[in-house]
Every structure is written in C-alpha cells, then in structure tokens.
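To the wet lab folks,

You asked to see what we're planning to order before we commit. Fair enough. Below is the target structure as tokens, and below that is the sequence we designed to fit it. If anything looks off to you, flag it before the synthesis order goes out.
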C-alpha cells in the first residue's frame, strides 16, 4: 500500500523548519524527509521527530554553497576533502536520528567537463561515501537530476546513473528514483519502475512539468502508485513538490494514503 513522507524542505515552508514537523504530523503524515538539517542540532531535530512520532526516511549530505549554485562535490576534481567532510556530517546526523539513508549529491560539472576524469573522481568519492555510511549501517542514495532545472549536473539519466552505481561494487548504494526528474529526462515511467525493480532504494514524487502536487500535470499517479505496489516497493514516497497554494490546502490527493488523517496529532 502506498505510503508518503512529507519533504519538509518544500512543504509547510510558511513555518520555521522545526515547526514543520508539527504541521506534517497534524496533516496526517507519519514520515518525513528533508534536505539539510545542519542549521539545527541533532538534539533539536530528534526532539521534533519523537514529539510527533515521525520516522525520518532521507537527508541530504551538505552540498556546498547552495545559494551560489553548488550541488555537491562527488564528481568534482579537487573537492574530495569537502566531499569527505560532507559525508561524515551526514552520517553523524542520520545515524543519530534513525534515518536509514543519505543522499550524496554529485555536483555541477558543466557541459564541457572531462567526463572520464569526473567519473574516476566520482567512483572514488562515492566508494568512500558508501564505506562511511556502511560502517553506520546506512545506505547511500544517488539521484539523477533533470538538466532543465539543474543545468550541468553530473547525472541526468536513470540508466547511466545505474551503470555508474554498479561500478562502485558496494551493496549499500541505490538509485534515488525521483519520478519528476525521470519523466522529464527519460519518460516511460511505469516500465522503468518495473525494469529497475530492486535498483532504487528511495522514491520521490511531484507533478510534471510544474513540480506541483502529483494530482496535476501529465502523469497518472494512481497508476504509478499501483506500479510501485506491484513490484513490492513499500517504503514511503517522498512528497518533494512545490505546493500550488498552501500545503494543507493541496493535500486532498494524499488523503487515502495518510494513515493518521488530517488533524490527528
């Protein structure tokens, strides 16, 4: 049965970050994910999770100067020290917060990069990430991003990303299947869900093309949810979208999948 996790970096953003945990629980969610919790202590985040009986499904490793356009370090020559520090901090947070996986971003390499050199650096850095995470019994998620929203990102397509993951020879590294990015770059979503069964460890959803609620746009999410159910994927799907208006006002589509029901906190 379909389960959902609220992405607190994109939902309930009219509230301060720590207050979004309360809002998510009150809206009926029992799981959350978010990008970067590092402006807050582990203790602060843990208290909000426990207060609201929320599980945490995913965090991102620090990705550098986000406002300045950085999106991680793994494929960027000369950035291995920053990558190692980023992974170390993410592992500390995830392990303490009971989060099973971290998303390690690959970085902006541009269109004119030396692909072979970047791949070699990426493999070395992601093996380090996998080993550090594995020592804490954590998984690593690797996500291709569409090149319309994130021009120059190192990974944009599902199959080439999976090929690189296989080169790592690490059992705790998985594809992060973001349906929004995958539809823009590759399409054929239902068949892709079926074909890549077992390769992805985390899934995120949003409407296409505008990245609003998944009840709008070109995709039929009712059928997509059935496809994930049919292949036995039972982890919460991350709701990583920009609400058209207020978050709560746009959650009508999610009501059948929220076990607590709105206002249950």
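Sequence we intend to order:
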């Amino acid at each position: 049965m379909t389960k959902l996790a609220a992405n607190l970096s994109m939902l309930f953003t009219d509230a301060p970050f720590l207050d979004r945990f309360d809002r998510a629980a009150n809206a009926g969610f029992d799981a959350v994910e978010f990008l970067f919790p590092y402006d807050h202590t582990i203790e602060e985040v843990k208290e909000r999770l426990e207060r609201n009986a929320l599980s945490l499904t995913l965090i991102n490793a620090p990705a550098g100067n986000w406002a300045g356009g950085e999106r991680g370090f793994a494929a960027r020559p000369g950035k291995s020290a920053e990558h190692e520090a980023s992974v170390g901090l993410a592992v500390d947070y995830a392990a303490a917060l009971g989060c099973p996986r971290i998303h390690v971003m690959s970085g902006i390499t541009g269109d004119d990069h030396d692909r072979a050199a970047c791949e070699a650096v990426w493999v070395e850095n992601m093996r380090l990430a996998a080993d550090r995470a594995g020592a804490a019994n954590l998984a690593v998620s690797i996500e291709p991003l569409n090149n319309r929203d994130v021009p120059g990102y190192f990974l944009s397509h599902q199959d080439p990303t999976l090929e690189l993951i296989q080169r790592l020879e690490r059992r705790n590294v998985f594809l992060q299947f973001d349906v929004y990015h995958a539809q823009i770059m590759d399409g054929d979503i239902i068949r892709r869900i079926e074909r890549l069964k077992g390769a992805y460890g985390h899934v995120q959803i949003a409407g296409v093309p505008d990245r609003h609620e998944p009840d709008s746009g070109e995709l039929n999410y009712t059928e997509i949810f059935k496809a994930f159910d049919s292949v036995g994927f039972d982890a919460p799907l991350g709701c990583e979208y920009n609400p058209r208006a207020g978050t709560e006002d746009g959650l009508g589509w999610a009501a059948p999948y929220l076990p607590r029901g709105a206002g249950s906190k």
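Structural context that might help your review: The beta strands are 4-7, 31-34, 55-60, 101-103, 139-142, 173-178, 200-205, 237-239. The mean pLDDT is 97.

Thanks,
Computational group
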